[in-house]
Amino acid sequence: MELHSGDVDTTPMTTTTSAPAAAPFGRALCAMITPFTEAGALDLDGAQRLADRLVSEGCDGLVLSGTTGESPTTTDAEKAALVRAVREAVGDRASIVAGVGTADTRHTVELALEAEKAGADGLLVVAPYYSRPPQDAVEAHFREIADASGLPLALYDIPGRTGTRIEPDTMIRLAEHPRIVAVKDCAYDLLGTQKVLAGTELAYYAGCDEYVLALYAIGASGYISTVANVAPRQFRAILDTFDAGDTAEAARRQQRAVPLIELMMSAGLPGAVTAKAVLGALGLPAGPVRPPLRPADPARIDGLLAAYERLVAA
């Protein structure tokens, strides 16, 4: 139809929903807490029960021994035992990504090889922290780990905790490695994220729960969520609704999760503390956090539970 100045095109528009981005570890991943007994020991039975619940409620991937999994205070043997136990519990119903990142390249390689033996499907490797290496050293660190194991690797970019950014240009170079396939994005740099998405085939996972829909809408593969420990079905629904073409409803679902996200992730307590507080109050496997972390106080737990109940009732 030829249009002239002042005319309005009234041709009906066809709405299509593009296929989801490639998702090597699934789309809806939970950064799972590590359950402990009341005495502080690793609770493998609890980990299996929690993992089964998360998968049954919509998670198609589990990240073990990440930040929320209290990796700084679990031993190498505990990390491997956790992978084996969760693998036994979920079978092939979900991918298992093992957090193996440390400040020491040699130690990280050792953890990567142990995770591979234990049955992990992939590795989550955080940027080396505290020593603040320059970008050429950061790149060499990740390449050495990717070369050492046969597992695919996700870069974990969280400079607010590590003090070291994985710069977008570094990611673009690392994307050339055949086993570096994904990014857990906690950098709060939307421009940098889009630069890497446009220039590579890396699968991006939102690592900050408030960014789940925003990153998914611009081509991310899904999320690695802390809040999904307590609300797995509600977070999975954000992706499913968006994929079904109802972007307005997806936005509403994301917005309804904001109060709980804020209380769990942005109110002064680490996600491991708040997730365990809610899970424990619900009678689900959790247990205490290990020092130096401390449990949430009763007033904070009451607020978390109120926000949780409003979300699941919506």
From TrEMBL:
Where composition is biased (Low complexity), the residues are 10-20
Question: Where does it live in the cell?
Answer: Cytoplasm
Residues in the active site? Y156, K184
Highest rank taxon of the organism: Bacteria
At the top of the EC hierarchy, this enzyme's class is: lyase
Where, by residue number, does pyruvate bind? Answer: T68, I224
Tell me which residues are marked as the site Part of a proton relay during catalysis: T67, Y130
Broad class of the protein's primary localization: cytoplasm
Q: Any one cellular component term from GO for this entry?
A: cytosol
GO function terms (MF aspect)? 4-hydroxy-tetrahydrodipicolinate synthase activity
UniProt KW Amino-acid biosynthesis keyword: yes
Q: Name one GO biological process term.
A: lysine biosynthetic process via diaminopimelate
Q: In which pathway does it act?
A: Amino-acid biosynthesis; L-lysine biosynthesis via DAP pathway; (S)-tetrahydrodipicolinate from L-aspartate: step 3/4
Q: Does the keyword Glycoprotein apply?
A: no
Residues of the region (Disordered) are 1-20
**By its UniProt entry, which CDD domains does this protein fall under?**
DHDPS
Q: Which PANTHER family match?
A: 4-HYDROXY-2-OXOGLUTARATE ALDOLASE, MITOCHONDRIAL, DIHYDRODIPICOLINATE SYNTHASE
NCBIfam families on file = dapA
**Quaternary assembly:** Homotetramer; dimer of dimers.
Instruction: Summarize the protein's role.
Output: Catalyzes the condensation of (S)-aspartate-beta-semialdehyde [(S)-ASA] and pyruvate to 4-hydroxy-tetrahydrodipicolinate (HTPA).
Instruction: Tell me what this protein is called.
Output: 4-hydroxy-tetrahydrodipicolinate synthase
